[in-house]
Fold this sequence. Notes:
With 611 residues, this protein is an all-alpha fold. Helices cover 61% and strands 0% of the residues. It has helices spanning 3-29, 33-45, 56-76, 79-89, 92-95, 99-119, 126-141, 151-154, 179-194, 202-264, 270-277, 293-302, 305-320, 326-337, 360-374, 377-383, 389-399, 405-417, 424-435, 442-447, 449-459, 468-478, 482-490, 493-500, 506-519, 530-535, 562-569. It is found in: Cytoplasm, Cytoskeleton, Cilium basal body; Cytoplasm, Cytoskeleton, Microtubule organizing center, Centrosome, Centriole. One of its GO terms (biological process) is cilium assembly. It comes from Amphiprion ocellaris (Clown anemonefish). Residues 65-196 form the ARMC9 CTLH-like domain. Residues 435-520 form the LisH domain.
Amino acid sequence: MNSREAAKMGDILATEADLLGMIKEYLKFEEFEETVHSFDKECQSKGKLVSKPRGSALRDSKTRVIQKDLLSSFDDGDHKVFFELWTENIPSEVKDTDAEALSLEFYLHIHFTIYPLRRHPGRHDRAEFEERISYFKQYLETRGAALSQTTEFLSYYALPFVPNPTAHPSFKNLFQDSWIPELRDKLEQFLSVTLKPSNTPRLMTLYKEGGRSTKEAMQQLQLQLVESDRRITSYVRKFSKMQADYQNLIGITAELVDSLEATVSGKMASSMLRFSIAPQRPKDVPMLPSLDYEKLKKDLADGADRLKSLLLQALRWRLTRSLPGEQRDTVLQAYISNDLLERYSTKQKIVLHLLRSTNEIVRQYMARLINAFASLAEGRAYLSQIPILLKLLTEVLRKEDKESLTRENVLVALQKLSLREPIITDYLICVCVLNDCLCTGKRKCAENGKHVLKVLTDLLGHENHEIRPYVNGALYSILCIPSVRQEAKEMSVEEILRCYSREENPDLNRQFEFIIKQLNSAEEEGPESDDEEEEDDNDEDLMETDLDKEEVLQPQHRELSGESLLTTEYLGIMTNMAKVKRKSTPLPQPSVDEPLQRPVTPSSHRNTSVG
């Protein structure tokens, strides 16, 4: 055995001895005396070395070093070293939940923030102070946010926005000589209790830490999976489009090559060239049987809940499972020309009112069908002409559980509807405020900036204060656009925000200050991503592969469903058009039709009946 192999073997034996020592330590901790005796005896018989448990003296020594380093960095104002040690050595169950620890951590952040002002009272190190203020803001918006509702800490949330804290009466106590020694005593006492050496066996500690890291890793992987699913859907859509373009290009290329070869051989190729660049006639595809839409709409209104659900499922499947192109276009045009969703109906209750059904499956399958309509450009055009649709969809967002498939389908449908030019502002504001999402339409918001700003500033006065962070987020996001900033200044948005400021709510005031800072900035908007430009195409069809996922409705024995239900019970006369244009002409609108109404803001819902 050479020296390298001997060293490797020595490492293996040392690791094995350490592991056996941890096992013995755990067994002794749990008082398995007989097991410990048998364990020692068997290790001895097998010639296994068992390391001795690490003594408390070593642990005490390490604890004293950590405590000394924490106090030293406190005295030196070294916030980076301090909080690195704090994070690593204060148990999470203490620093995240213990009221004393949370309070102490808050005041420690204040100490490190104002340290440059105390160190040089006459000549403040402004650059260092600004850096620490930025760090303090970050803390207030993350870990410190939980204390914003506690009266003791409220005044300190204004600290980042006070030009000269040393002269401000609210912070007078921070600069008294006694403040730092008192805080240091509290810190020392807290550390002496919290960093007390634990008698917990090392094996148990390793298990706890390993389990925690595994859980965090799983959560991170789940987030990555959601993002990957989104990207896959986008890439599949782009790939399908590229594949179709590629097939067309191959056909044209082949014809051109044949034409060139014919020309080289002296043959007239003009007719072949004209043929090669002429649009190719698509292959005939079978048209689905026509349906009796009046009977369908009657049963959707008056039938049993199970029949309604089966019909909604079958109608959706007709769209999602039809062949892309002429067959799917024909299905959609049949739905629209027969006014399946009763856009022109004068009845008090229309098909869309199934979103208000007391049956959960009926509501979900109605939302799924709307999502399928919104997946196609012509479907979005049809939905955009239904005045009551927005009101019904926002009702769903308010009432449904956050994890429900009904709510998920409504949100996705709203995001797709945001691609429609005539209604972009109203739909997008709903999506932004209720889903904190301005990802697909900031540029379109800019086209009607004053209206967007008016709706958002009106929402600031809504009685439900829980929506304010979303409204503030939407405001902050669209104010990155120079043209919207200019319109906001003309509308005196800064003055409006200051009117809503409240002394008792510094957290809200802080958000307003961020918005005002964005409003008065001179930065240009960053470039849009390629993905966003792709998604912004109103003519694009967005039929995902997972529109039919997680079907909760399954047919019973001998029960008709899907296409068999439609063609058996609802077969109609042949109304399919021989040829469908991709761009249909607008439907004739009856005189009783009302113009599309912009969504009523939440503040005025109190006095508005939902039709």
